[in-house]
């Protein structure tokens, strides 16, 4: 069946007003627009943006997609300190850690960054989370996703603004907390996922979350890169899938060529969990960065928000100058499925076609022809 004629849909699609149960997480406005136009549900990651930037990005998407629904994703992690200023945080960084980062800067001959970067200008703090939330609440985004923490007072404010509240969860106890906080939708995000993820694999986690969800819609996330996995997620009772790595190699993201080349050739085993990115456990693509931080000379990464204050200037410079040896990105085990630069539409159409084929295969295997 051709994807243009296929009608893969679930009750959650009807509830949200979308065509296909494919949810796309991305930090990119252009990717979010393309996902929305393809009939999926885009969720723009804004946890790394200041409030003005957030408001602007949401306006851009709305202008491009009309009244089609889309969401934004914020993080509400527990922090190891309550500083709000980068200089205050830097004063707490141990000399040994600073010396290690200085050593990396020299070893890879990284010139200083010349442009502002979130990691060099901003500290993750309660004040930042609250300002980001205000920008989102005042916007016309239709859904708010809460990652790495689901404060009940946040969910209450989201729902008071008639927005859909969604939480990403990696364990049954997180799902119970999110349900108690009154979320509308759960994303069961397994160990396979790119980004901040827990220890339970997607295939194990999804049915447990569905059992715990008591009828709330559940979306499966983590490692999904093929239609067979979409069919399997639907078979497990999920009402959709949520993908992040899928969009990293798309034209619409405009990621550095060196990073796209690494993603295109990467296998599932070429991603690794590390605290060196943010201070919390996060799955990223293996690179010189992960090798250096797992070497015997490396100090233990600091907790959030100190790790990003420590590495921020180096990461900003590595990204700005495209320093190949140290460039990295969060990526999931699904990276194995994305082997070329393509458009968001190409990814979408392939996933839909594969899902139909997998469902047909399942019907045949069950003798239902
Ligand atoms: C580059 C990248 C950045 C991510 N950043 C966030 C984030 O800020 N907030 C969030 O809720 N999830 C984030 N995630 C996780 C995604 O929401 C999603 O759960 C995950 O990508 C699913 O697994 P997959 O990568 O195998 O598709 C990120 C994922 C990637 C690949």
TrEMBL record:
Molecular function per GO: nitronate monooxygenase activity
Signal peptide (from-to): none
Keywords, ordered alphabetically: Flavoprotein, FMN, Monooxygenase, Oxidoreductase
Keyword Flavoprotein: yes
The organism's place on the tree of life at top rank: Bacteria
UniProt entry tagged with the keyword Oxidoreductase: yes
Pfam families: NMO
Identification of the protein by name: Nitronate monooxygenase
Species assigned in the record: Rhodoferax sediminis
